[in-house]
């Protein structure tokens, strides 16, 4: 590993951390798409800043671009407040228009602007180490490393200083304003941080990767934990892991670093989406299947209790009358037998004492409809556990 | 080339005619289907799908090695559909909200697409140039067969829309009711979503991945301001879309260095802005005017009621009073007083005012009506 490689990985990891922190709050506040909007609409700000400073890394350009990001948020909110269209339509209208203005500004001045839309949107991390910060002949390392480092420092200190306020206003805006924290300030503070981070990171990794780095680690972490601090930590961890592994994938495939970091994020999300212990798709599908059987079982037991006639209690009746498939009725019968709820004599099903007690409790539950009762019932009768 | 020259060239010049027709058709079909996207609160789905289509284009190219636009669009369609159903899966199966799901699919698919595109660029295949036109779109690359293809797809969309009009409308406004009526809501839902994806994929070549969502939304959002009827809205949106296409092409052709996609989007944005401000029933301008008018009426009534309260205590209703006593009353202004005089409710002599007969009657009725309303 040479020094340029280490620097690239360092920049990528810092960007990942700087994005994961505001990203977590954006995901929790259901404003993930705002980051997409900001990442596109900073383009006119960048172009304008570039006309003035002629330097992609100048602080003035970053400020101007971040300002455009905040203007986007304000515009979206203004349009939404008029009630003419919904919030998502407002977002979808504002950012392509601003982006178009940026593209046209570049196109009209193509001769004196060395700025490419591709570069803004996609970035090129591989070139980042070549643009170095040199003060009086001393090399301080790549400029983008310094920029993103400063942004990260500001983000972390803001996070530590306002953690409590952020937490309350994210989960209970009403309580936050009752306690005297202005939700508006929190909102715009977060938006400013997101905006500045996007701008600071775009030149290294491109606008789209910024969106991916903001949303994907946070969403992945949200599938695993519901604790805010853990979620932040996991998001940072996922971000850094994808940044470093993505770099090596890009190295191996000789392809875009930003693209492969995003792909790693995607793979990470896909595996968590499928296999997360409680919230993954497989777990959810299994639980849904279990709950379906549970409901079937209760229906079946209630049916048995309501009918004394032999023909209503015949095993075949399940298939014919209640219209269950053979496999399904067998599952339910087996489950009931295993839990000692029923007795089967010559294909006639009848409830045991335990089954009767369970059924009357089930009726209680259905009448009162309180969740607390069914939990007790499961414990009482070792449903799905014995 | 100025605009006039453009319009005379449209009918004679092959390239201009093709591009103008293509963007017009695209605008129309986007407006048509965009209306449903906007009303179903799926506005940002367009953004997500257009980004999600990129890996499909790249994979289609990797598999076939050809740059034939129809094969690439089929790839885009497939990956767009996968993206759409994954978004739906995330929303229904996990506790992640729709905005997170959209942002995730958008950025992850797009990043993967970029990875593939850069990978392709390194391949020793001279044919790969021009794939990145799908990023920002190049209307100039449209040829006549593309326009025919678009027209056929638009025809199919129109046909399906007319056939399932009742079902689409019902599902749009009352999904539960549709289900109880026995319609297969899942099928209708998938049908309309697939057509939205199709429209987006069609537009990729012309306006590109990034700006496609505006193409879908803007005409529909503009049309929504002028009507409350779905049918009128769909027609209006198609017209707005087609005109943004034509005007956008015209403007970009008449200037140097202007790519068509962004100009079309800005023209559509102008349509939206005009609709937001000037629509008679919902527009901001008329709403503000109505608001001011209502406030004036209210002030007028307040002043009249206040005068009535003073006059009530006197035997002679026309007994003059000083204007001064109105001064600490907040509804009073010189102009409202003048208005009352114009309406013949009040007469003014020097510094004194007095209520006329009509003014007194109106005021007493005003009072009664308010009382009645309060009860």
Descriptive keywords:
heterodimer, A: 386 residues, ABC transporter involved in vitamin B12 uptake, BtuC, two-stranded antiparallel ribbon, two-stranded antiparallel sheet, 17 helices, 76% helix, 4% strand, B: 375 residues, Arc Repressor Mutant, subunit A, 15 helices, 75% helix, 3% strand, elongated
SSE topology sketch:
The complex is a heterodimer of chains A (386) and B (375).
Chain A: H1 3-28, H2 32-53, H3 59-82, H4 87-108, H5 117-122, E1 132-135, E2 138-142, H6 143-161, H7 163-171, H8 173-179, H9 183-205, H10 207-224, H11 228-253, H12 257-275, H13 281-306, H14 315-320, H15 326-338, E3 342-345, E4 348-351, H16 353-368, H17 371-381
Antiparallel strand pairs in A: 1-2, 3-4
Helix pairs in contact in A: 1-6, 1-9, 1-10, 1-11, 2-3, 2-4, 2-9, 2-10, 3-4, 3-9, 6-9, 7-8, 9-10, 10-11, 10-12, 11-12, 13-15, 13-16, 16-17
Chain B: H1 3-10, H2 14-39, H3 45-64, H4 69-93, H5 98-121, H6 133-136, H7 144-163, H8 165-173, H9 175-180, H10 185-224, H11 230-254, H12 260-278, H13 284-312, E1 321-322, H14 334-342, E2 346-349, E3 352-355, H15 357-374
Antiparallel strand pairs in B: 1-3, 2-3
Helix pairs in contact in B: 1-11, 2-7, 2-10, 2-11, 3-4, 3-5, 3-10, 4-5, 4-10, 7-10, 10-11, 10-12, 11-12, 13-14, 13-15
